[in-house]
Amino acid sequence: MKNLKTTISILTISLIAIFTSCKKTSTTNSAASSGGSVTATIGSVSFNAASANISKVSNIVTVQGAQADGSSIQIQVSGLGSQYVPTAATYNLDPNAGNNGNYVGTALYMAPVVGTTAGKTYASGGCDASLPRSGFVPSGSVTFTEISSTKIAGTFKFNAAQLNDCGDVKVISTGSFSKTF
Could you count the other beta carbons within 10 Å of the beta carbon of residue 112? Predict the structure, then answer.
């Protein structure tokens, strides 16, 4: 069951990343845009997104930032049911911690391709449940300080394990994002 939750969370974020990057901005019941800022620290290295996409569509808030080297951060908070719309509050990014049973929060860090070595994907929910856990403890949160029709802003931090190796962990800290529409 835990493996299924992790897989669904990762697939959801990936699909939303694909669809929101191709979607036109709607003027009804949503706020979506390209632009804005996403910054963080990955271990001890600064992450400053060269491009960002921050959106709220119905009951889903998505924050995406990518650097020129191909690395990216993606965060999503989804209300479970149309009546649960994310508001200015703090949400867990550990899919097992829950958010009062009404929300799912997930995060991904995608490392860049280096030479001929493929990039790696790190998830806040951890690696595949069939792998040895190697002591990885999922934790993290995103705090929306403002969610309105004119601005989405907040902070985040999370631990993320590489999908194929729970011993390979990234710590993402001092994250922030902001977009004025």
Answer: 15
What is the pLDDT tens value at each position of the chain, 181 positions in all? 444 344 444 444 443 443 334 333 333 334 444 569 999 999 999 999 999 999 999 999 999 999 999 999 999 999 999 899 999 999 999 877 778 889 999 999 999 988 877 889 999 988 877 776 667 888 899 999 999 999 999 999 999 999 888 888 999 999 999 999 8
- Residue 75: give the domain boundaries: 2-180
Compute, in degrees rounded to 10, the torsion defined by CA atoms 102, 36, 156, 163. 80
Domain count, the chain: 1
Handedness of CA 89, 95, 101, 103 (dihedral sign): positive
Supply the pTM of this predicted model: 0.80
